[in-house]
User: Fold Protein kinase domain-containing protein from Carnegiea gigantea.
Amino acid sequence: MASTLPRCILLWIFLVCCFPPKHAVVTDEKSILLEFKAHLKDPTNHLSSWVDANSACEFSGVSCDPDTGRVTGILFDNALLGGEISPSLCRMQGLTSLVLTSNSISGNIPPELSQCSSLKVLNLSMNRMVGRIPDLSGLRNLEVLDLSSNFFTGEFPTWIGNLTGLAYLGLANNMFAEDRIPESLGYLKNLTWLFLANSKRVGEIPESLYGLKELSTFDLSRNKITGMLSKSISEMRKLIKIELFENNLTGKIPPELANLTLLQEFDISANHFYGELPPEIGNLKSLTVFQLYDNDFTGELPPGFGDLQHLQGFSIYRNNFSGEFPANFGRFSPLTSIDISENKFTGPFPSYLCESRGLKFLLALGNEFSGEFPTSYADCKTLLRLRVNQNRLSGQLPDGIWAMPNVDIIDFSNNDFAGEISPAIAKSATLSQLTLENNRFSGLLPPELGKLTQLERLYLSNNSFSGGIPPELGALKQLSSLQLQRNMLHGSIPSELGQCTRLADMNLAGNFLSGNIPGALAQMISLNSLNLSNNRLTGPIPRSLGKLKLSLIDLSKNQLSGIVPSDLLQIGNEDSFLGNKGLCTDKNMKTYVNYGLEVCNGEQMQRAGLSTEILVTCVLLSVLVVALLGLLLVNYRHYRVSHSCSEDDLEERGEKDLKWKIESFHHLEFDVDEICNLEEENLIGSGGTGKVYRLDLRKNGGTVAVKQLWKGAGFRVLSAEMNILGKIRHRNILKLYACLLRGGMGFLVFEYMSKGNLLQALQREVKGGQPELDWYKRFKIALGVAKGLAYLHHDCSTPIIHRDIKSTNILLDEDYEPKIADFGVAKATDDSPEGSECSCFAGTHGYIAPELAYTRKVTEKSDVYSFGVVLLELLTGRSPVEEQYGEGRDIVYWVLSCLNNQKGEINVLDGRVLSPVVKDDMMKVLKIATLCTTKLPSLRPTMRDVVKMLVDADPCTFRPRHEYSEKTEKVLL
Ligand SMILES: *[C@@H]1O[C@H](CO)[C@@H](O)[C@H](O)[C@H]1NC(C)=O
Ligand SMILES: *[C@@H]1O[C@H](CO)[C@@H](O)[C@H](O)[C@H]1NC(C)=O
Ligand SMILES: *[C@@H]1O[C@H](CO)[C@@H](O)[C@H](O)[C@H]1NC(C)=O
Assistant:
């Protein structure tokens, strides 16, 4: 007995140690996981299955070894998880893979993570982690280490050289202390993917890196790397992708580069490389993307480029290439984008760039191409941008060139083209900018221009267009700039132009226009600059023009007569009214401004006064009549289809009435039973007012979003959204197709936004760790939201205050066009004298204007504040409220204190999108954001001002900046 007992115990110990009961390990691992969960924030309940009642292997995102039942992996990608990583995680010794990409996890990497000795995959990229990266060189089994796109600081990890099993290494987009790339990375002989973009690296590329013979992706872009590209690069025979753009590299391209026969993507843009391209690199047959814009290259392109068969993107703008362009270029390639602008190419324009019929961007501005523009492009219907500004091209353009069903910009300006604008231009229905200035175009302006409803800029100046200005241009509701100066246009200014209510800049100078200035021009409420000089205009200046908020007016050199309205005198300058013999000024005004105008005599005063008054009265009367008719019509229709949808009805009759009530606001074909048979797997969101589902319609194949309102509580929301959204039509406001009601159930059918909300988009990254939203996309979103809000505030018959502007209420469509959504708490301002005094609290923490702490009086200016916060999110990539700002502090406070501390504005801007190219534009937007978030509401700009200021900061206004955007998209691929 005495001897058997200890033996039993020994045996027992042995058994427990070496064959632990599955059960015991599993409960222990469960408690470790539950502790891991306790450290996280999970706003969208991705961890709802992580409860004691389930086994660890039943937890979502957890994988286990089927034999031992031990946890081997944790995977959460883009699950909106916040909080921190629990230090105890590595007590699970079987863990081989920890992947928490694209979340909002903050805090440090716990040093204890180095005890996860089985770990093979550690991917924490795209989070908000801070601090130094602890020494993880103990993770000897690591094959994948990606910590890109966080906020790590401190020393760049040099111990990485000890992790010799690494195949993937990403440390890009962090804020390490500036230093060289460690020589020791050369030990990572198994490395295939190296991603160190935007990680504050300086100095030369260590020679040791060229010994990484397995490397296929080599990305050191957006650092400050100096020196030359060594010919040793040709030893990395497996390279597929070289990204060295935005550094400080110099020297010539080594001819040995041509040995990299697998090379597909090559980008050394925005450096200081010079010299000619070695002809050998024309033999890089696998090239798909070749970019070296913004360097100092000279000479001709290698003729071999004409034979490439896989080339999709080619961008070499802003160099000094010369000679003829390889004639066959594009002939055998699936080109989608080419930018050869700002070089010195001569000879005929290449003919085959669109041979594969997939070209979207054709940019060849600022060269010396001559001769006719090849007719082959008339069949290039995929083009989004066609710009050959500033060459020596001549001749007439075939009809097909004007008919581009997808085009955004057509720019033939500053050449020697002749002939007419074809009426086929009506087919370019998506055109936003038509730029033909400084050519010899002639003939009539086709009325079909009025069909281009997306047109924003129409630049036709300095040609020989004749005939009248087509009244159809009044249909261009998006037009913001109209430049027809220096042509031979006749006839009167059509009063229909007054309907272009977004027009900010109108220049009709230097034509033969006659007749009166139409008073209707005063309807162009956005007009900022008006130039009608050098025409044959007669009659008085409509007094109503004085109401416009112009900053420039030029009516000089016409035959105008009568008194100059005093408002206009104040806007104008010495030259504004010159050369109109009949114009005169009020005696009283003469003492303030003396523009060489005579003082009016009594008769002139009366005549002028009378005629403008009559005009104003007529306009007012007709507007009134139209408005009344409109009201009647709307009311009638509203009554006809919808009386069952009004709020009172809903609550009284809703419960018992089992017939569907439908109100539709846009034409859309769907079956009622489709809408009410929503499937849980299509759930795309859930919020305060209801659940949102994606629904693919049976009839026309379209997709919509359906919001099912929470029972009962939803009716106020329903009627708010219906009343506001149902009536609004604006590109940047979410379209409400219909509302459906039965019993206690309510459904709203919206347009479907495939890119989700702005918050999600800001957190997403694409392959390679770049944020999905680069600055160009972010700017587009900022401007779109501003336009939508400006519309709500200034262009609706009753101004509407949204009251809950935030990044989750801004939805993005396929093209990142933003739409303002969720009008559940929005308010029209005039329902009662104290209409904007609101009893119910609205808004979201972090976005609420400070004045709402002491007053319930909501004004447009509180929306402006919230919009400013959204701008800050776009600029900084941060959330409105983060622990890092300090107790009770928000992003507005944080940004201001950074700016005041002389820490430099640059530290505020999102390092992942900041580059020298966009820095100035981002700084402009930062100024606007600080204006919008000013404490005193009265000092904040109006949304209309904001739109104007943003347009000034548009990185896409001037060539060639905007072409970077296409480039950036490429980098993201
Ligand atoms: C890393 O490698 C170096 C030599 O290559 C060695 O001196 C050092 O001790 C190693 N560090 C660790 C933590 O193993
Ligand atoms: C490198 O990869 C090879 C082949 O996959 C493998 O056999 C070797 O062990 C790896 N080297 C290291 C240091 O892990
Ligand atoms: C780029 O490198 C040159 C030397 O090659 C140096 O003089 C210059 O300051 C560097 N520029 C930047 C921005 O680092």
In short: The pocket of 2-acetamido-2-deoxy-beta-D-glucopyranose (ligand 3) is lined by residues 224, 226, 248, 250 (CB under 6 Å). The CA atoms of residues 161 and 187 lie 6 Å apart. The first strand starts at residue 40 and ends at 41. Residues 1-23, 608-657, 831-840, 957-973 have pLDDT under 50 and may be disordered.
